Amino acid sequence: MDKRQQGKRTSKDLQLDHFRTDDRNKKLTTNQGLKMAEDEHSLTAGDRGPTLMEDFHFREKMTHFDHERIPERVVHARGFGMHGEFEAYESMEDYTKAAFLSEKGKKTPVFARISTVVGQRGSTDIPRDVRGFAVKFYTDEGNYDLVGNNMPIFFIQDGIKFPDLVHAIKPEPHNEIPQATGAHDTFWDFVANNQETANQVMWLMSPRALPRSYSMMEGFSINTFRFVNAKGEARFVRFHWKPVLGVHSFEWDEAQKVTGNDPDFNRRELWTNIEMGNYPEWELGVQMIEEKDEFNFDFDILDATKFWPEEEIPVKIIGKMTLNRNVDNFFAETEQAAFHPGHVVPGIDFSNDPLLQARLFSYTDTQLIRLGGPNFHELPINRPVCPFHNNQRDGYGRQTINVGNVSYHKNSLADNTPSPASEEEGGYVHYQEKVEGRKVRARSDSFKDHFSQARMFWNSLADFEKMHIIEAFSFEIGKVKNQNVRQQVIDMFANVDRDMAMAVAKNINANPPKGNHVQYDKKSPAVSMADTVRKPQTRRAGIIVGEGFDGNGLGDVLDKLKEAGITADFISERQGTIKGQDGYKAEANQTFTTTNAVLYDGLIIAGGTGENAMKFKMNASEFINDTFKHYKTVGVTEGGKELFAQSMAQEGPGVIMAGARGDFGKALVESFARYKHYERKF
Ligand code: HDE
User: Fold this and answer.
1) Among protein residues, the one whose CA lies closest to atom 11 of ligand 1
2) In angstroms, what is the span from residue 363 Cα to ligand 1's centroid?
3) Quick one: which of 48, 238, 324, 659 has the most CB atoms within 10 Å?
4) Among the three residues 359, 382, 405, which one is the final residue of a domain in this structure?
5) What is the pTM of this model?
6) Which residue range is the domain that position 349 belongs to?
């Protein structure tokens, strides 16, 4: 509790105090509070005899252990949660009566959980996958959950297809292979037979599917919601989270190696940065469409497989979220957090987006099995910070002790309380949208263009992103065994871009695609990562040092990196003090085996050697080659030039040679801020 300072704490944090327990320096007891004199031996009849039935301590301890696991989430099983705060930049009263957006500077506690979708709870942080981006706002008017993803669109248009999609992308049911990836027959079979997936699949093949950090990815509501103001006027709205550090991603080769070296990379990175006070931040933006303009676009604004181009519908930035506190207990907080897009507050309402409508059913339903009954709202992490009163009672694990004999409405015994609140008193009133129609199982024709926007995405990308997509398709479809499915996918994506499909067909030895792409020339530059924000903060440098390294050449590099917020590890063949020339010393905290080049945003080569000179060279070369291949910074001091020359790397963009460009440290910081040097050609 030491890190929590009175005064800076949110209402949620203070509420959680009632549930926190610190077991340090306490006597061990049973769950009934009985102090136990022994905890290492079962109660037995004689020291070699059978265990006795009356050993309540053994039974309690073992029974609790036997029941420790709950089902993991059916999707988004692997996630990472953090506490923080949201601050509104201005009053949004003209658009919504939501109190947490009503005043400039108003702060609201939040809990965010970022997740992968497909992999199981124990899988990796860095598969090619969509990331979930769920935020619970503990507002004065009740919990508001913004449950989004890191891409602005989804695979399907109607939620009734969600079980099919998830069955297809999860490991195949007969052998539960492969884990955390869509690179297998059933997923691509689903894609080819459900062509509404085209747009989302293009995004999934792009670098967006491999975020370098959770703090370097966007978040989107995807679904269309409504803002409603106090006058009852409504607008359609979609939400965006824009990371302050910009959008940055791994290469696929890099991601696979990160998985091997540190499958917890993304969560470890955020945990560590939060502990160090480098808090991840995102600005919240909204795109709004007037009701009268509902049909003024060449896509349907209720279709979750379409993004709203930012150039046509600008994003208004309305606040900032800062995540500034790690959880005390992963299970109690992150695992038990229950999000739901239907947790809304007055001023936020739904649209008829058929994907959203299905979600409004699914989330409560899934919590009932996962969290074991209808009282999951009482779990500390899920409790609103405002009071809640109704006539619901009982159920597994009920904690609230409702006093009195009335648990029904209407009543006279308790004077008709708890009573509904009027709209003026903050009561939620659903937007009175007029609806009429025949009951049909059908989809509007306005949902049927599956390729124009997928092509718009392709048209808007930089060369490095297009190359990434071709390589991703080649990997993923290259893993598909069924030739028919492979060909169907190639033919399908020729609708997006014929040359792209041709290139993939060549790589996987499929037939050239039939047909040509749709004629759609519009672009939306905002969907490309090319012009993103580039900052040095939270970047990681590895400095290779061997015995006799060039300490002089490093000069003030360490200070410059630190000033810029870049952390550095010294890497050598062993941990401990490494002696350089001219009396310099470095404390190597990592070795070629405890770490790997892919875990850094760039390397600095300070030269030197090891006990086995050949092995040192081979290790250093491998580190340099990977860093260079993944377009990252390679800095070389005078004494590091020999090691650099022995690698496959070459001078060029992002390779900073000491002495060549004035201030070495400054040039390195700029290069780390830039991160990837895609101008580098192979
Ligand atoms: Fe979810 N989704 N989803 N989803 N989703 C779940 O709820 C579902 C969809 C998203 O960190 C489940 O508590 C359906 C879109 C996130 O705990 C489940 C459909 C988007 C999380 C569920 C979708 C999301 C979930 C599983 C199609 C982005 C993790 C566990 C109609 C806008 C929340 C759970 C967390 C989790 C259903 C589609 C985001 C089964 C039926 C689109 C971030 O209820």
Assistant:
1) 113
2) 7
3) 238
4) 382
5) 0.97
6) 79-382
